[in-house]
């Protein structure tokens, strides 16, 4: 009876104890599983959409997927950082090459004028040297800060220097463009006008006034309006929004936007008016060159019969060349030998063709470098400043490149400058000095002449 009671009493107690322990363990396991709804792995949180009961294999699978995804994410970040660093290095090298070549070319032009007395005798060469000085300042003062801002992605020099840098940018680039315009006008007077007209137009005083204007006029569209913030009148809110968009303040971001009146006036003075004058001048020069080509063809068709007579003197000179051998004249004569007519005609045609190609290269480079920037500069204020900053930066640096091309277009194509460069680069080698002075000692010896209708053409 007692054993029977023992079985009926003790067994339920044991079962109750076992069930209680199992229940507690199960509840603890469920709580632990419920708490694992947010798993943190290397700082990256991933929400696991589990139920109250998670099979071990599912938990392992989710953790493995999370590990793989985190590894891929880190690989992508490292790859992006590597590409970003590589792009920065390539961009820095490219911009450095532009700056170094611009400094070297323009500095070489200035040194050549200082060391070669023959170049200093020709007053129009001062346009080229003044142009080189403006482009040299662009490379030393403007380009480095623009390159640092582009490669680092921020402005580090404060608001005041931002205004100064922007003013210098506008002043020096405008001065460079105005010098190109003055060179075109000088060539027009030298090639398309009579010698007396050229001497009357291009006096030393007038050359000095033109050079002064190239430096004074840009100040009225650079320091004066920019330091007074005239360019920002009416668009202050847009400028602040642009600063907030790039996440910077006045001291850490250099934002330069212009209103519509400033954009129109600045672009007209700095580009469109000089462009119009250059197009007109070079068009007249091209017409004159083609006229000479037609005269040569007429001489060639005339055959071997000499024609004598007299005619007024007409002189055609290349103002960009200090080499007297590049000067040629239509001069008065009483007769000539036609046996040399063919070589002179062919030589003259080569000169005219080269002149036409040179003009095309000069105008093409100028328009290619600056037209995109100034077209965008006029259009952007009228389309609510929606032009991407990447496009602005590309057009601006394309204009800077023009300062590096100018020494090659206006000085390196000049024979006298090339000889001076050789002397400088060869450490004053007397062979090049003698070659450079040889042509100056033969400035008045005519090679040959051919006459038609009483007018002779001689290449000197």
Describe the structure.
The chain has 460 residues and is mostly helical. It starts with a helix and ends with a strand. It has helices at 2-35, 56-115, 117-121, 125-152, 158-192, 195-201, 204-216, 223-227, 236-245, 260-301, 341-379, 389-410, 415-425, 430-438, and strands at residues 38-41, 44-47, 314-316, 328-332, 449-452, 455-459. It has a domain at 95-304 and 341-433: Rhopdopsin 7-helix transmembrane proteins, CATH 1.20.1070.10. Strand 1 and strand 2 (44-47) form a beta hairpin. The strands form two sheets. The protein has a four-stranded antiparallel sheet. It has a two-stranded antiparallel ribbon with strand order 1-2.
Strand content: 5-15%
What is the fold named in CATH at topology level of the domain at 95-304 and 341-433?
Rhopdopsin 7-helix transmembrane proteins
Overall SS class: mainly alpha
Count of alpha and pi helical runs: 14
CATH-assigned homologous superfamily of the domain at 95-304 and 341-433 = Rhodopsin 7-helix transmembrane proteins
Mean pLDDT, all residues = 75
Low-confidence stretches: 1-18, 37-52, 307-340, 436-460
Biggest sheet: strands, sense, closure? 4 strands, antiparallel
Distance between the termini: 149 Å
Helix-strand pattern: HEEHHHHHHHHHEEHHHHEE
Spatial order of the strands forming the largest sheet: 3-4-6-5
CATH class of the domain at 95-304 and 341-433: Mainly Alpha
Form type? elongated
What integer value in Å does the Rg equal? 39 Å
- The share of residues in helices is 55-70%
Oligomerization category of the chains in this entry: single chain
CATH arch. level architecture of the domain at 95-304 and 341-433: Up-down Bundle
Q: Give the total of beta strands.
A: 6
């Amino acid at each position: 009876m007692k054993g029977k009671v023992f079985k009926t009493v003790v067994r339920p107690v044991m079962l109750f104890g076992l069930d209680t322990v199992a229940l507690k363990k199960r509840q603890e396991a469920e709580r632990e599983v419920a708490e694992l709804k947010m798993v943190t792995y290397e700082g990256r949180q991933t929400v696991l959409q589990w139920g109250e009961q998670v099979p071990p294999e599912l938990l392992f699978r989710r953790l493995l997927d999370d590990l793989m995804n985190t590894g891929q994410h880190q690989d992508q970040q490292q790859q992006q950082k590597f590409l970003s660093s590589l792009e920065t290095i390539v961009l820095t090298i490219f911009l450095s090459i532009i700056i170094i070549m611009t400094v070297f070319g323009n500095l070489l032009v200035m040194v050549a004028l200082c060391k070669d007395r023959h170049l200093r005798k020709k007053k129009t060469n001062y346009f080229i040297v003044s142009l080189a000085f403006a482009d040299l300042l662009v490379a030393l003062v403007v380009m480095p800060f623009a390159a640092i801002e582009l490669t680092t992605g921020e402005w580090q020099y404060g608001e005041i220097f931002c205004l100064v840098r922007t003013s210098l940018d506008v002043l020096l680039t405008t001065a460079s463009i105005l010098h190109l315009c003055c060179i075109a006008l000088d060539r027009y007077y030298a090639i398309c006008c009579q010698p007396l007209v050229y001497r009357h137009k291009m006096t030393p005083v007038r050359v000095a006034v033109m050079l002064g204007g190239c430096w004074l006029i840009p100040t009225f569209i650079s320091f004066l309006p920019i330091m007074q913030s005239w360019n920002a009148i009416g668009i202050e809110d847009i400028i602040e929004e642009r600063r907030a968009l790039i996440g910077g303040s006045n001291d850490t971001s250099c934002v330069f936007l212009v209103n519509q009146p400033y954009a129109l006036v600045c672009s007209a003075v700095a580009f469109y008016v000089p462009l119009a004058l250059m197009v007109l001048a070079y068009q007249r020069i091209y017409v004159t060159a083609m006229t000479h080509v037609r005269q040569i063809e007429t001489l060639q068709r005339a055959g071997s019969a000499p024609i004598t007579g007299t005619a007024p003197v007409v002189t055609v000179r290349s103002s960009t060349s200090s080499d007297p051998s590049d000067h040629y004249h239509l001069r008065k004569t009483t007769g000539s030998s036609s046996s040399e007519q063919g070589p002179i005609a062919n030589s003259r045609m080569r000169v005219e063709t080269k002149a036409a190609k040179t003009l095309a290269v000069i105008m093409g480079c100028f328009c290619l470098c600056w037209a995109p920037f100034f077209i965008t500069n006029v259009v952007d204020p009228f389309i609510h400043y929606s032009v991407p900053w990447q496009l602005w930066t590309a057009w601006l640096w394309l204009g800077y490149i023009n300062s590096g091309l100018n020494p090659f277009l206006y000085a390196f194509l000049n024979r006298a400058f090339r000889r001076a460069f050789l002397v400088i680069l060869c450490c004053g080698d007397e062979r090049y000095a003698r070659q450079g002075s040889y042509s100056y000692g033969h400035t008045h010896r005519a090679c040959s002449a051919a006459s038609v209708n009483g007018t002779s053409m001689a290449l000197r």
